[in-house]
Write a structure and sequence with these properties.
The complex is a heterodimer of chains A (616) and B (503).
Chain A lengths: L1 H19 L1 H9 L7 H8 L4 H11 L5 H24 L4 E2 L2 E2 L19 H4 L16 H9 L7 H18 L4 H19 L3 H16 L5 H22 L7 H6 L13 H18 L6 H26 L2 H14 L3 H10 L5 H13 L3 H4 L21 H12 L2 H13 L8 H13 L3 H11 L6 H10 L4 H9 L12 H11 L4 H13 L3 H11 L10 H12 L14 H16 L5 H9 L3 H7 L3
Antiparallel strand pairs in A: 1-2
Helix pairs in contact in A: 1-5, 2-5, 2-15, 4-8, 5-7, 5-8, 5-13, 7-13, 7-14, 8-9, 8-10, 9-10, 9-11, 10-11, 10-13, 15-17, 16-17, 17-19, 19-20, 20-21, 21-22, 22-23, 25-26, 26-27, 27-28, 29-30, 30-31
Chain B lengths: L1 H23 L2 E3 L5 E3 L6 E3 L8 E3 L16 E8 L4 E6 L7 H10 L4 E10 L2 E4 L3 E6 L6 E7 L10 E6 L5 E6 L7 E8 L2 E10 L4 E6 L2 E6 L9 E6 L5 E13 L7 E14 L4 E4 L8 E7 L5 E7 L14 E6 L12 E4 L7 E7 L5 E7 L12 E6 L5 E3 L9 E6 L5 E6 L8 E6 L10 E2 L5 H6 L4 E8 L7 H9 L4 E2 L1 E4 L2
Parallel strand pairs in B: 1-8, 3-9, 16-34, 20-35
Antiparallel strand pairs in B: 2-4, 5-6, 5-7, 7-8, 7-9, 10-11, 10-33, 11-12, 13-14, 14-15, 15-16, 17-18, 18-19, 19-20, 21-22, 22-23, 23-24, 25-26, 26-27, 27-28, 29-30, 30-31, 31-32
The chains are: A mainly alpha (616), B mainly beta (503).
C-alpha cells in the first residue's frame, strides 16, 4: 500500500512537470552550467553548500529533456517522502499511547517507557507506529512540489533537504547512545558545509528524538548536556565559515543557492523545512484513536485533505503565463518557428517578449511582411525590445540581433543576460551564443575558451566539438559576416530604426534588416518614415507586388494628405481599396460608440485597425 | 638451487635495467627554443617572485588560432643558476617548481641569470629544447598585488570582488566580495604609495559609499553633495596622507557595432576635487571643475604637483572620436590643499592626434607612465591603447615597445622602489584583462614583461572568466575592516562630507 501510494505520488509529480510545466524545466536548464571534471567539482564543493549546489547542477542539466527532468524531480520527491517516513517510523522511541516494539493492546502496552541502554533503546522497531498518520509523511514532498512551481526555487534546495533527512536517518541507525551522539556531532558540521541551513532540520530532529528517548526516565540533565552544544553549534558554524568566505550570516543559514535571487529571501521554503522536521514528531506525538476504525477514517481524511490541498496548491502556484513565456523562449532558442506560430494562434501572446518571438518566427517563415498584423502587435517593442537588465529578455533579443547581423549586439545581450543571472551562475545557452558571436567576429581564441568549457558538458559537448572543428566555416556564420555592419559606429538604443537602415544600406542582401525596418516604422505608426523606406525596394511605379499590410499603410499615408487615392504612385489592389472604403464607412457608422468592437471582426487583422485602436 | 637463485636474480636485475632504459626512451635534441606558455623566456623577474610554472606547446600548435594543446605526456625543466645551483620542475601538463627551492635559487642568483632547459615526453621519446634565460633582478617587488575581479561585460555585473595576491607565493585572498553585501559593486581601490594602511575603495549601490581606512581608522563616506556632479571616482592619495584627489565623473557607455572594439566609455561630466581627510571636506577649485573634462588625477611623488588629464568639452557621444585628452599639471599646496591658478600642459597629445589617460608618476619622481590612445578615455576598451613613459627630467616621452602588444595595454601601477610596474593587457585573447609585470631600470629601460605566475597557469587562465582589473602593488597585506563595512553598509550608516570652494 505504501509503495503504491509512493508510486502514485511520483507518477503525479512526473506527469505534472512533464505535461504542465515542461518549459519551467527548460528554463532551469539554460541558466546553469554544470561541467564534468575535477576542476569544476573542486571549485564547486569547496564552498559552503557547495555539494548541494554541485548535485543540484548535475540534476538540472538533464532538464534539457523535460521528461527526464520530471522523472528526476519525481524520484527526489518520492525519496524525500520515504526519508520522512523512515524518520517517523524507523527508530525506537517513546510513541504516544504505546511503547515501540510492543503491540498495541497487549499486556505490556501500558508498561513504562524504555529504559536507556536497554535492548529496546537500540533495537529498531519492527512495527510501524501510528500508521494512520502515514499520509502526513507526504506533506514535505507535496509542499516542495508546490515550491518547484516557482522557477526560481532551485533543485539544490531539494538536494539540501534530502541530505538533511538522510543525515537524520543515518543518525537514527547509529545504534547505542554514545555512537549515536558521536554520529550526530560528526555529521552536523559536515552537513552544514554540504547543505547549509538545512542542518537546522537535522538538529531539530536530533533534539526531539533524543527527548523522546528520555521519556519518563527523568534524565533531563543528561539530555540538556547532550543537545545544548548542538543548538549552540548550529549558530556558530556560520560565524566560523565567515572567517573564510564572504557571505552574510543569514544567507549561510537561510540558503545561498536555494533561491535564484541571491539578494532576496524566499521564506516559503522554510515551511518545507519546518514540515520535514515536524511531521516525524507529529507521527509520534499524536495518539492513536481508541477505536481501530477511527484510525482508518482519520487516515482517509488525511489522504483526501493532502491530495486536495496539493491539487489546489498546484492550481494556485503553477503560473501558466510564465510557462507560456518560457515556451516561446525555448522555441526561439531551438528555432522552432512553425511551432511558435501555432502557439500564438492557439493562445495570443501576452507580452512584448512573446511578440518578439512571434515576429521573429514570422520572418523566418517568410510571413512577416504579409501577416504582421494577424497577431496582436503592441508596438515596436514587440519587434525589438530595449535592453533590460534581466536574464531572460536579452537572450531573446540576442537571437534577433544575431539573425539581423548585429553581431556585437547579439554578443552583448547574451553576455549581459548571463551576468544578470541573480545567483552568479553561468549559462550554457549564453556560452553557446558567445562562442558563435566570437567565431563570426574572428575572435577565435575567445571562442575556443567558451567551446572548451561547453565540451565539458553532457549535452553541449557534441555541438562544441563540431564547432571547434569547423571554426568559422559554418554557412550560417558566413551569411552573418556578409550582412553585418561594415563601418564603425555606436549602437543607438533610441535610433533602432536608423541602425537598421544603416545595416540594410551597407548590405542589400540583408533583407531581414529591411523587413524589420519597415515593420518597425509600421509598429511605431511612423508613416512618413515608412514611405521613405518603402521606395528603397518598392519604388513608385514599380510592378513589384506589395504585401497587403504595406498597401494598407501606403493608402493610409496617402489619404492623410490627399482626399482620395487617385494618383497614388503605388500599385494598390482593388481588394485593398474596397476594404479601405468599407473600413471608413463602418468607422464613421460607429464613431460615436465603440467602433473598435464593431470593426474587429472584419478588420482586426488590418494595419488600419492597429493604427486606430492599438495603444503603443 | 642457490645457483639457480643467483641466476634468477641476475636475470631479474637485467630485465629491470633494460626496462628502465627502454622506459626512458630516446632523447631528441630540438634546435629551437621551447614554445612555453606563459612566455617566460628572457624575462626579468624580481628575486621574490613566486615560481614561474609553465606549460609547453609542441611546435605544431604554435599558431595563435590553435588551442593550447600540449601533446607531451610529461614535462621536465631544469633551472641552473650561475652559482651552479640546480632545481628541477616537472609535471604532466605544467612544469611546477618547488616554491622553497625556487626561492632559494633566486636568492642565490640575485642580479644574475638562470638557465632553463626544458624537455617534454611524447610517447617514449623525449624532446629536449635549447635553453633559455631568465634574469633575476636584485630589486625586489612589493609584497602583493591587489586587483578587482570583474567579468569583461557591458552594462551588468555579476560577482565582483577585490582580491590580494601575495607575489612571492600563489596565495590569494578576498578583500571584499559583493556576495557579502548583495547588489553592490566595488571599484577604485587605491593606496598611498602602496601602503595598505592608507586605503580607499568605493562600494556602489544603494548601500554604497566610499571606504576610507587610514592607520586603523575606518570611515564610510557619502561623498555626494549638492555642489558636486557625482560621488567620488578615481582617487589619488597625497604622499603625506592628508589629502586625496578624486575625480567626479558621470560616466556613460556606448557600444561599438563592429568587431574591433566593444565598448566606448566616456564622461559627460568630469571634474577634480581635493578631499581633506582632516576636515572631512571637499575642496573645489574653479580651475578643475569647469565644463571641460578633468579626470584621472595623480599627485606627484613629492606631493607638490597634481597631474591629470584634460580634454575640451565635446558633444558626446556623437563626437566620441574627437575626444582627446592632454596630460596637464597644476601646483598643489600640501599645507592648505589648494591647487595653483594655472594649468600647465605637460604633453599636448591632442596636437598629435592622440589622447592620454591614466598618468601615474613613479614613486622616485623620475617618470610618469601613461596610456596613449587614438582618442577617448578609459584605455582598457581601446585596442590601440599603449603604454608610454615620460621622463620628467628632460621632458621627453616614448612608447614602451617592449611592453606593448597589438592589443590593449592600460592600467598600471608602480612598485614602491620604482623598479617594477604591473600593467593590464588583453594581449592573450583580446577579451580578458590580465596582469603583466615588467622591470624598469633607473634609465627607463624596460625588460620583457611576464604574466603573473600561477600554480597551474593552464587551469587558472584557461578557466578564468573574470578580468584582473586595476592591478595595484602593495607593500604589505591589506586588512579591510570587513565587519565594520558590513555593519555600516547594512545600516546605511554613512558620514556626509562638507564642501568648500577654494577660489
Amino acid at each position: 500500500m505504501r509503495k503504491v501510494s509512493s508510486l502514485v505520488f511520483g507518477l503525479g509529480v512526473f506527469l505534472f512537470f512533464w505535461l504542465v510545466l515542461p518549459y519551467h524545466l527548460r528554463f532551469h536548464e539554460q541558466f546553469q552550467f554544470f561541467r564534468f571534471g575535477t576542476d569544476y567539482f573542486v571549485d564547486s564543493v569547496l564552498h559552503p553548500e557547495g555539494f548541494s549546489f554541485y548535485l543540484g547542477g548535475f540534476f538540472t542539466q538533464f532538464f534539457r529533456y523535460p521528461w527526464a527532468g520530471a522523472l528526476i524531480i519525481a524520484i527526489l520527491l518520492v525519496l524525500m517522502q520515504r526519508l520522512v517516513a523512515g524518520i517517523s517510523y524507523g527508530v525506537t522511541g517513546r510513541v504516544a499511547g504505546r511503547v515501540a516494539g510492543r503491540i498495541p493492546g497487549s499486556a505490556h502496552s501500558s508498561a513504562p517507557g524504555i529504559v536507556p541502554g536497554s535492548a529496546y533503546d537500540s533495537a529498531r522497531s519492527s512495527t510501524p507506529g501510528n500508521t494512520f498518520l502515514y499520509p502526513l509523511t507526504y506533506l514535505p514532498s507535496a509542499f516542495v512540489w508546490l515550491l518547484l512551481c516557482n522557477e526560481n526555487y532551485m533543485i539544490s534546495a531539494v538536494v539540501a533537504l534530502l541530505l538533511a533527512l538522510w543525515a537524520v536517518n543515518l543518525y537514527q541507525r547509529a545504534g547505542e547512545r554514545k555512537s549515536r551522539i558521536a554520529v550526530f556531532y560528526i555529521l552536523q558540521p559536515v552537513l552544514f558545509f554540504l547543505a547549509g541551513g538545512t542542518v537546522l532540520i537535522f538538529t531539530a530532529c536530533f533534539l526531539y528524538l533524543e527527548a523522546l528517548r528520555i521519556g519518563n526516565t527523568g534524565r533531563w540533565k543528561s539530555y540538556v548536556l547532550r543537545v545544548l552544544p548542538a543548538v549552540a553549534l548550529v549558530f556558530l558554524y556560520p560565524v566560523a565559515v565567515r572567517l573564510f568566505w564572504q557571505y552574510p550570516y543569514e544567507k549561510l543559514l537561510g540558503g545561498i543557492h536555494f533561491y535564484r535571487y541571491y539578494y532576496f529571501s524566499y521564506p516559503m521554503q522554510y515551511i518545507a523545512w519546518a514540515l520535514a522536521a515536524a511531521v516525524p514528531l507529529l507521527c509520534r506525538l499524536i495518539p492513536a484513536p481508541k477505536y481501530g476504525r477511527g484510525s482508518w477514517i482519520i487516515s482517509a481524511v488525511l489522504w483526501v485533505l493532502i491530495t486536495a490541498g496539493t491539487v489546489f496548491g498546484l492550481f494556485r502556484f503553477a503560473e501558466l503565463d510564465k510557462e507560456r513565456l518560457f515556451e516561446y523562449d525555448t522555441l526561439v532558442y531551438e528555432e522552432q518557428w512553425g511551432q511558435i506560430l501555432q502557439r500564438a494562434q492557439k493562445d495570443a501572446p501576452g507580452s512584448s517578449i512573446e511578440m518578439v518571438a512571434v515576429n521573429l518566427a514570422l520572418w523566418h517563415t517568410g510571413r512577416l511582411e504579409t501577416e504582421l498584423f494577424h497577431y496582436p502587435q503592441q508596438g515596436p517593442e514587440g519587434l525589438m525590445l530595449p535592453f533590460r537588465r534581466d536574464f531572460v529578455t536579452p537572450l531573446m533579443m540576442s537571437q534577433v540581433y544575431l539573425h539581423l547581423g548585429m553581431v556585437n549586439s547579439a554578443q552583448r545581450n547574451a553576455y549581459d543576460a548571463m551576468e544578470a543571472i541573480p545567483d552568479f551562475q553561468k549559462s550554457a545557452r549564453s556560452y553557446k551564443r558567445l562562442a558563435q558571436t566570437n567565431i563570426i567576429n574572428g575572435h577565435y581564441r575567445v571562442a575556443r575558451g567558451y567551446l572548451e568549457q561547453l565540451s565539458k558538458t553532457l549535452f553541449y559537448r557534441k555541438w562544441a566539438q563540431e564547432a571547434m572543428q569547423a571554426l568559422g566555416n559554418d554557412p550560417l556564420y558566413g551569411r552573418i559576416r556578409r550582412i553585418r555592419y561594415r563601418d564603425e559606429m555606436l549602437f543607438s538604443p533610441q535610433g533602432l530604426n536608423a541602425m537598421l537602415d544603416v545595416l540594410y544600406r551597407g548590405n542589400r542582401e540583408n533583407t531581414m534588416a529591411y523587413a524589420y525596418m519597415l515593420a518597425y516604422t509600421l509598429l511605431a505608426k511612423d508613416l512618413e518614415r515608412f514611405a521613405d523606406y518603402i521606395i528603397l525596394e518598392y519604388p513608385a511605379g514599380s510592378d513589384k507586388p506589395l504585401p497587403v499590410p504595406y498597401q494598407e499603410a501606403l493608402v493610409l499615408y496617402w489619404v492623410q494628405n490627399n482626399t482620395s487615392l487617385e494618383g497614388i504612385p503605388w500599385n494598390i489592389s482593388g481588394d485593398v481599396r474596397k476594404k479601405l472604403d468599407d473600413f471608413t464607412a463602418m468607422y464613421q457608422q460607429f464613431a460615436g460608440g465603440r467602433p473598435e468592437r464593431a470593426l474587429k471582426k472584419d478588420f482586426g487583422k488590418t494595419y488600419w485597425y492597429y493604427v486606430f485602436f492599438t495603444k503603443t | 638451487m642457490s645457483s639457480l637463485l643467483k641466476h634468477s636474480l641476475a636475470f631479474a636485475a637485467l630485465i629491470t635495467v633494460f626496462s628502465c632504459s627502454h622506459y626512458r626512451g630516446e632523447e631528441v635534441i630540438e634546435d629551437s627554443l621551447p614554445v612555453i606558455w606563459p612566455d617566460y623566456r628572457e624575462v626579468t623577474v624580481p628575486v621574490n617572485i613566486a615560481p614561474l610554472n609553465f606549460t609547453v606547446e609542441q611546435p605544431a600548435f604554435q599558431s595563435p588560432e590553435e588551442n593550447m594543446g600540449n601533446a607531451f605526456s610529461r614535462l621536465e625543466a631544469m633551472v641552473e643558476g650561475t652559482d651552479g645551483t640546480i632545481i628541477k620542475g616537472s609535471g604532466k601538463r605544467v612544469v611546477r617548481f618547488s616554491p622553497r627551492r625556487w626561492k632559494q635559487l633566486l636568492e642565490k642568483n640575485t642580479g644574475d641569470s638562470l638557465r632553463v632547459t626544458v624537455r617534454g615526453r611524447n610517447g617514449k621519446q623525449w624532446h629536449k629544447y635549447l635553453a633559455f634565460t631568465i634574469y633575476v633582478s636584485d630589486q625586489p617587488i612589493d609584497h602583493g598585488l591587489v586587483y578587482r575581479h570583474i567579468a569583461p561585460g557591458y552594462e551588468v555585473y555579476s560577482k565582483v570582488g577585490i582580491y590580494q595576491r601575495e607575489l612571492s607565493s600563489f596565495r590569494t585572498k578576498a578583500i571584499y566580495e559583493n556576495t557579502l553585501i548583495p547588489q553592490t559593486c566595488v571599484n577604485c581601490h587605491s593606496f598611498k604609495q602602496g601602503d595598505p594602511d592608507y586605503f580607499t575603495l568605493h562600494v556602489r549601490g544603494e548601500k554604497g559609499a566610499t571606504v576610507l581606512q587610514k592607520e586603523g581608522t575606518f570611515q564610510y563616506l557619502d561623498s555626494r553633495t549638492d555642489s558636486t556632479a557625482s560621488a567620488f571616482s578615481y582617487p589619488s592619495w597625497h604622499p603625506e596622507g592628508r589629502f586625496i584627489a578624486y575625480s567626479l565623473n558621470k560616466t556613460y557607455q556606448s557600444f561599438h557595432v563592429t568587431a574591433e572594439d566593444r565598448v566606448e566609455v566616456y564622461d559627460l561630466v568630469s571634474d577634480i576635487v581635493i578631499y581633506d581627510m582632516q576636515e572631512n571636506c571637499i575642496l573645489a577649485s574653479d580651475l578643475l571643475t569647469t565644463a571641460a573634462f578633468e579626470t584621472f588625477p595623480k599627485f606627484s611623488a613629492d606631493g607638490r604637483s597634481l597631474y591629470f588629464c584634460l580634454a575640451p568639452e565635446q558633444d558626446l557621444p556623437s563626437e566620441y572620436r574627437e575626444l582627446r585628452y592632454n596630460l596637464c599639471r597644476v601646483d598643489f599646496n600640501p599645507l592648505t590643499g589648494e591647487t595653483g591658478k594655472e594649468i600647465h600642459t605637460v604633453i599636448d597629445a591632442v596636437s598629435i592626434g592622440k589622447s592620454i589617460s591614466q598618468p601615474v608618476p613613479s614613486p622616485d619622481g623620475r617618470y610618469i607612465l601613461f596610456s596613449l590612445l587614438d582618442f577617448g578615455t578609459f584605455p582598457v576598451n581601446h585596442r590601440a591603447s599603449e603604454l608610454a613613459l615620460l621622463d620628467l627630467e628632460n621632458g621627453t616621452w616614448c612608447l614602451l615597445d617592449a611592453w606593448n602588444s597589438p592589443d590593449v595595454e592600460s592600467y598600471h601601477s608602480w612598485s614602491s622602489n620604482s623598479a617594477w610596474v604591473v600593467f593590464s593587457s588583453r594581449r592573450r585573447d583580446g577579451l580578458l584583462v590580465l596582469p603583466y609585470i615588467g622591470y624598469i631600470d633607473e634609465n627607463g629601460r624596460v625588460g620583457k614583461p611576464f604574466l603573473l605566475p600561477q600554480k597551474d597557469p593552464v587551469h587558472f587562465y584557461g578557466t578564468l572568466t573574470r578580468s584582473f582589473n586595476c592591478p595595484e602593488l602593495v607593500t604589505a597585506p591589506v586588512k579591510l575592516k570587513l565587519r565594520e563595512l558590513e555593519r555600516r553598509a547594512n545600516n546605511l550608516d554613512r558620514e556626509p562630507v562638507q564642501f568648500r570652494r577654494i577660489d
